[in-house]
Specification:
Blueprint (H helix, E strand, L loop, with lengths): L14 H4 L55 H4 L19 H15 L17 H28 L5 H12 L12 H16 L20 H12 L8 H8 L2 H7 L7 H10 L2 E5 L11 H19 L5 E2 L6 E2 L7 E12 L6 E5 L14 E9 L3 E2 L11 E4 L10 H18 L4 E6 L3 H4 L21 E4 L17 E4 L4 E2 L5 E2 L18 H7 L28 H6 L2 H4 L4 H8 L3 E4 L10 H14 L10
Parallel strand pairs: 4-9, 9-14
Antiparallel strand pairs: 1-5, 2-3, 4-6, 6-7, 6-8, 10-11, 12-13
The structure holds zinc ion (ZN).
Length: 622
């Protein structure tokens, strides 16, 4: 299954290093929830720091001498974005003074990163307001504690429970007080103590609210990020994963360099991968690997797929989630949705998706991956795996990928697969309407060669604007040059369509009588023929990359305008065209949303077991 790119999920504490097994008295956590807390996090309960002498504190309620810690605020805790591990009955003593001094220093650096030189301005660490406030509160608390302890050490005497006392003073000074509460600031005090403990144990553990938009961690150091990236590049693509980073850091030299006691958690490593521009997705492959198209395609598919499904739903059979009761749509031609999926079991890595860096280019599929077995099939809630009524014909395809085996599973194979499915359905299930849902992989959504695309169009006329395609020989196979490269040839881009349905030629006719005869018209001419004016004043493209245009704009530059034209937005894929011609329909799942395909769950279990097996190169193991 997809492992989502996680937000910060757990505090991942090293409980064992912080707590002793010695039971202590309760800190008297019986109080009202402090609803006026200025931060979203609900207070943490079950804090294990339970120092003696707290009962003397006028602000707290004496707890019974027992190791049971009250968790009366556990309901509020359920909303806490920071999960905490209960440490019932465990002592959590104050950290060492030197640890706190180190933590203060590092926290100051986090809030105000040191400048490389005097003239450089402070770099904004980019925290949101709430997160910054939390970190500043931690600083206030730690400094207060140091002051108390130093007062004591210099002979002035200090409270024996200085740690707890300091946290409560800090909480009150910071204004976390609820009127009428018997224990004002108590919850905030416990939060502060826990945050500081966490931070001392692991500098990656800072209680910030939203890791997506903020946060400073080791990975923000560009040199360090580059070092990890370089290491990942030495690995096979399929081996790039969060665990690889966890392992990379897990050696004494690295840990001492990073001033850490243990390596990072898998969750942290996943966050780092995301920060470094990796995404858990398919191999980049196929000729439409225009990555800058991605964001637009995602938006388009999200606006396209979900409404299309919503429209079909009234005619689909539904099952109640409670008792699985079947509800057929009354009196209409029923719609059956068939989900397509293909799953590759590699002898070496057995993984179809992997962490792909955003800059990674497409490369041939299944090269050097050892033996692999691909399974492709269609599945519906009504019928299960697609097969003829008598069970003799199945749509399932087993495919050994690789040059020496059955070649590569490309768009042609998917088309053949779809054709088989349509043949079975036409023969046995023609009383229903069938919709095929495919993942939005390049091999699935491939368009007819030479079909419309704004991507490489020139602004003005061009004698050289053509679409490069593979040169297919008379035998229907790819042609190779003597040095092994696939031979290409150039064809003109297919015609567009005006809003009224008439075809628009993108090349000047050979007999147009001017010097541009036969040349590509260019985006300005194409747009002006469509009724736009003053197009030539616009840039060809806003920025260096197509994705640099402001989000949501459709008329900022020539390329964005052409791209946003309806006929460009809805160029049919080959699969769609072939399905439509036989009375079927094809939908593509939005990119990066394969979880919408329930078939993933079917594979998930098998693949999970597969990956847990040791690596193997043997085909029989597959
Ligand atoms: Zn633009």
């Amino acid at each position: 299954m997809d492992k989502p790119i996680t937000q910060w999920q757990s505090t991942n504490m090293s409980v064992d290093t912080l707590s002793s097994s010695e039971p202590g008295p309760s800190s008297g956590d019986t109080h009202q929830p402090e609803s006026e807390l200025p931060i979203t996090a609900a207070p943490l309960s079950n804090s294990p720091d339970t120092e003696k002498g707290l009962q003397d504190d006028a602000q707290s309620v004496a707890g019974p001498e027992t190791d049971q810690i009250d968790d009366s605020d556990s309901e509020a805790e359920a909303e806490d974005p920071i999960s905490t591990q209960p440490r019932k009955g465990a002592y959590w003593p104050a950290p060492k003074l030197e640890d706190i001094r180190g933590a203060i220093k590092d926290m100051e650096d986090i809030l105000k990163p040191p400048r490389k030189n005097r003239h450089q301005s402070y770099k904004d660490p980019g925290f949101d307001k709430k997160s910054r406030k939390r970190l500043e509160d931690m600083l206030v608390f730690m400094r207060a504690y140091i002051r108390i302890k130093e007062g004591k050490e210099s002979g002035l005497g200090g409270p024996t429970n200085a740690w707890t006392k300091a946290s409560m003073n800090a909480a009150r000074d910071l204004g976390y007080i609820k009127k009428g509460s018997k224990t004002p600031g108590d919850k905030k005090a416990r939060e502060l103590r826990k945050w500081v403990h966490d931070f001392i144990a692991d500098r990656e553990e800072i209680p910030i609210c939203d890791w997506k938009t903020s946060g400073r961690s080791l990975i923000d150091d560009e040199d360090f990020a580059q070092e990890i990236h370089t290491h990942l590049q030495t690995l096979k693509p399929s081996e790039v994963c969060a665990e690889a980073i966890v392992r990379f850091l897990d050696n004494p030299e690295m840990l001492s360099r990073l001033k850490r006691k243990k390596t990072i958690s898998v969750e942290t490593a996943q966050r780092w991968l995301a920060k470094m521009g990796y995404r858990w997705t398919y191999d980049p492959k196929g000729q439409y690997a225009d990555s800058h198209e991605c964001s637009d395609v995602v938006g388009y598919q999200n606006n396209h797929f979900l409404p299309a499904m919503a429209q079909l739903q009234p005619r689909m059979t539904m099952w109640t989630s409670k008792d699985g009761e079947r509800n057929d749509p009354p009196g209409v031609r029923r719609v059956v949705v068939w989900y397509h999926d293909e799953s590759t079991f590699y002898a070496h890595d057995r993984c179809r998706k992997r962490w792909v860096h955003k800059d990674e280019k497409a490369k041939p599929y299944a090269k050097g991956e050892g033996h692999s077995l691909m399974v492709a099939d269609f599945y519906s809630a009504e019928y299960g795996w697609l097969q003829s009524r008598d069970g003799k014909k199945r749509a399932r395809v087993l495919f050994r990928a690789g040059k020496a085996c059955d070649g590569y599973f490309d768009n042609d194979n998917v088309r053949t697969h779809l054709a088989t499915a349509m043949e079975i359905l036409t023969a046995d299930y023609s009383d229903e309407e069938h919709v095929f849902v495919f993942d939005n992989a390049k091999t699935h959504s491939k368009r007819l060669e030479g079909s419309q695309s704004a991507m490489r169009m020139t602004k003005g006329p061009s004698a050289n604007f053509f679409v490069e395609i593979n040169d297919i020989g008379d035998d229907g196979r790819l042609q190779y040059s003597p040095d092994g490269k696939i031979l290409k040839k150039k064809i003109p881009m297919s015609n567009g369509r005006f809003a009224d349905g008439r075809e628009q030629q993108f090349y000047w006719p050979a007999d147009c009588g001017n010097e541009l005869a036969g040349q590509f018209k260019g985006m300005v001419q194409i747009l002006e023929e469509r009724g736009y004016v003053n197009v030539s004043k616009k840039k060809a493209q806003c920025g260096k990359k197509f994705s640099d245009c402001s989000p949501g704009k459709t008329d900022c530059c020539c390329r964005r305008m052409v791209f946003s034209e309806p006929d460009f937005m809805t160029v049919e894929s080959i699969l769609e065209a072939e399905a439509n011609s036989q009375g079927f329909r094809v939908l593509f799942l939005p990119k990066f949303h394969c979880e919408l395909n329930p078939i993933e769950q079917c594979w998930g279990y098998a693949k999970r077991n597969y990956r847990l097996l040791p690596a193997s190169s043997s085909e029989t193991d597959l």
